[in-house]
Amino acid sequence: MKQKKQSLGWVSEYSAWLAQFDGATLLSTMLDLCESAAIYIVDKNQQVLYWGDGMEKLTGLRQENTVGKPCLAEFTLAETDDNQEQSIKLSQANGDKTTLKKISQILLDKSGLFAGGIVLLTEASESASNTFLPKVLATAKQNFHGILSRSPTMHDVFQIIQNAAETEATVLVRGESGSGKELVAKAIHNLSARRHAPFLAVNCAALSSNLLESELFGHVRGAFTGAIKDHSGLFQRANGGTLFLDEVAELPLELQAKLLRVLQERNYIPVGGDRTIEVDVRIVAATHRSLREEVKNGQFREDLMYRLRVVPIFLPPLRERREDISLLIWHFITQHNDERVRIIEKIDPQAMRLLLDYAWPGNVRELHNVVEYAFAVGRGSTLRLSELPPEFKETRVAEASKQLYKRGPALDTEDELAAIRQALQQSHGRAGLAANVLGMSRATFWRKRKSHGL
């Protein structure tokens, strides 16, 4: 009880810092952990904000001598330390050195910038898998029906999904490819009164107009060559449930009119049929393009757009919610670790930096593919820089070239060599142009080429 009171006092003292995050979630996590664990918290300036009883017992350093002061070098925390396990040496009062394991969880502010983090220390003899910090922290990470995020923007999206699911309104999900639009549709279905009925999905861009019409509305025997028996379409099979129309902007104009009738009249006629079929289906549609722009271009019916766009939901791309990158990386690593082909326990800091700074044009789907690539090409417990796909190496070379051009801090040999090779390739072997690209004199460029044997 003493510890909980102490924790509440700390929250009051640092309320301004807490306001950067989901304060309720963080407070819940802290109260769960502080009873017995060796926990401390630092801000972005490496100042100690919290030093629990467990830390006092483990390190011998008292709270009054640590809180509000810069932490010792071995306790510092970097953005690349998220979910990392490290070994540190701690000097005891008697001069002995103790080896401890340090497990970190970084925190980002609402702008996605590094704001500090929570750290657990354990005895080196304890396995990280036996500590309860990762398990408890996982409960604080937002997992909304399979959509993982700790971004405030996404939490607003979750609330819209929750509210929309309680109604029968048609929903239009807008987001870039790979951002998780189908997961949103499934969440709406699972939260709705229709959750015990079918959830079916179709990609409107994957089928020709004729096949898509038959797939959606079904056909009767003899409707066209090869129609040897009646076929129930998705609308009929999803009756009472939810139908997800992915890439709805690709729907041919002739099918848009038929879809509009279903939304208005709740009935349709199968291909080649003469009998109206009544149907009760909720539509969730998705697109990566603006339907308003498609309407302006004459590619989409305006009346259908308004029927589909009753509740619009916008999914931000991954590059706009950087706080989710490390969360998703470790989520997918855990999934692949369960397959036991390879078990990754930590990520090389250089690799983590590239992963955090990457633009992720393919969003969550691309991130998952990158993790899968690393499991396929690498071995060992550490995900290394060399195990990232080629596009990350290109990013690294581009950054190295930029750094040379700006005459920044000295690069390591590998990065400098890669930057010089890229400059030579871009200038088709002309040394003068390559030197200009890198912002150095011809003499300096010649000297560096000679030192690298180029």
Outline the structure in words:
By secondary structure, the chain is an alpha/beta fold. The chain has helices at 2-13, 15-18, 23-33, 53-59, 133-140, 152-165, 181-191, 209-217, 234-237, 253-265, 291-296, 302-308, 325-337, 349-357, 363-377, 390-405, 413-426, 431-438, 442-452, and strands at residues 38-43, 48-51, 85-91, 97-108, 114-123, 143-144, 147-148, 171-174, 199-203, 242-246, 267-268, 277-278, 282-287, 311-314, 346-347, 382-383. The strands form five sheets. Strands 2-1-5-4-3 form a five-stranded antiparallel β-sheet. Mean pLDDT is 80; it is low at 1-12, 126-141 and 405-409.
Provide a concise account of the structure shown.
The protein is α/β, with parallel strands linked by helices and 454 residues long. 42% of the residues lie in helices and 17% in strands.
Biggest β-sheet, characterized?
A: 5 strands, antiparallel
Low-pLDDT stretches are 1-12, 126-141, 405-409
Task: Give me the number of helical elements.
Answer: 19
Helix content: 40-55%
Strand-helix topology:
Elements: H1 2-13, H2 15-18, H3 23-33, E1 38-43, E2 48-51, H4 53-59, E3 85-91, E4 97-108, E5 114-123, H5 133-140, E6 143-144, E7 147-148, H6 152-165, E8 171-174, H7 181-191, E9 199-203, H8 209-217, H9 234-237, E10 242-246, H10 253-265, E11 267-268, E12 277-278, E13 282-287, H11 291-296, H12 302-308, E14 311-314, H13 325-337, E15 346-347, H14 349-357, H15 363-377, E16 382-383, H16 390-405, H17 413-426, H18 431-438, H19 442-452
Parallel strand pairs: 8-13, 8-14, 9-10, 10-13, 15-16
Antiparallel strand pairs: 1-2, 1-5, 3-4, 4-5, 6-7, 11-12
